[in-house]
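Per reviewer request, we include the raw input and output of the structure prediction for the construct analysed in the revised manuscript.
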Amino acid sequence: LFRSLRRGTLSRVGSESHTGRREYRVGQYVVDLISFEQLVLQVLRNVEPGSGSEKRVCVIDEIGKMELFSQPFIQSVRQTLGSERVVVLGTIPVPKGKPLALVEEVRQREDVKIFSVTKENRNSLLQEIVTTVQNCRK
């Protein structure tokens, strides 16, 4: 089990530049790409395959616009998804506007099951998701 207790600022609300470096924006948020990569990449790169016949579970919340500014994140997600010894439980945004390449790539994978969460079903989905993850780990 790899767990990181490190914390950091992943984004901030802002309209003016605080540094001389390039800023990555999603709406009103400025993404702190350096902090994001320092926190997230260490965890993704240390996902250890499960022992024996049982697969390890890796939770990624989320694969969205902010995260996709990071090429190393994209590469790490692809590598993790490609591992036969790891099950990924992740969140992706509902399609709207311009498609996000990695999100659509994930959505189209044959080994991916998409759960659409709504206000009406969000409380009843938990058991189905748990059962699906448990079955995938075998």
